[in-house]
Specification:
This protein has helices spanning 2-9, 11-20, 27-56, 64-86, 92-110, 117-138. The chain is an all-alpha fold.
Length: 140
C-alpha cells in the first residue's frame, strides 16, 4: 500500500506545476520547474527499467534492448532540459508528455512478464496523469 501512496504523492508536483503554468505571474518558472521534475522522474523510470531488466534474468545476460532504452531515457530527459535553454521556443513539455506515454507503452509490452500486475497498473495511472499534466502545463 505504501507504494501507491508514494506513487500518487509523486503526482502532486506534476498537477500543481501544471496549474501554476497557467498563472501569468509564474508561467515560465512553473514550466521550467515542471520540465525539471519530469526529467528527474523520467530518469528514475529509466533506472527502474534498468534494475528490473538486470534482476529478471538472474544468471543470464540482460536484454541489450532494455538496457539501451533505460540509459537512453535518462539522456533523453537531460536533453529536454538542455533544449529548453538552447531552444526556448520549442515546447519541451509536450515532448516530455509524449515520452512518458511511449516509455509506459514500451514497458507494458517489453517488460510485461517482469513487472507484477499491480506495478503495471500503477505505472499506467501515474504515466497518464504525468503525461496529461505535462501537456496541460505546455499549453499555457
Amino acid at each position: 500500500m505504501l507504494y501507491k501512496i508514494l506513487g500518487y504523492a509523486g503526482l502532486i508536483p506534476f498537477l500543481a506545476l501544471a496549474g501554476l503554468s497557467h498563472v501569468a505571474l509564474f508561467e515560465w518558472e512553473a514550466q521550467l520547474v515542471l520540465l525539471s521534475y519530469a526529467a528527474m522522474i523520467f530518469s528514475f523510470l529509466g533506472g527502474v527499467l534498468w534494475g528490473a531488466s538486470v534482476i529478471s534474468v538472474r544468471d543470464e545476460e540482460p536484454s541489450m534492448g532494455v538496457l539501451w532504452i533505460s540509459v537512453v531515457s535518462m539522456l533523453w530527459a537531460w536533453g529536454w532540459l538542455l533544449g529548453a535553454f538552447w531552444w526556448p521556443e520549442f515546447n519541451f513539455l509536450w515532448l516530455a508528455s509524449v515520452s512518458f506515454l511511449l516509455l509506459w507503452f514500451y514497458e507494458t509490452h517489453a517488460m510485461a512478464k517482469t513487472f507484477p500486475f499491480f506495478f503495471v497498473r500503477l505505472r499506467r495511472d501515474l504515466s497518464w496523469v504525468a503525461a496529461l499534466s505535462l501537456f496541460i502545463g505546455g499549453w499555457a
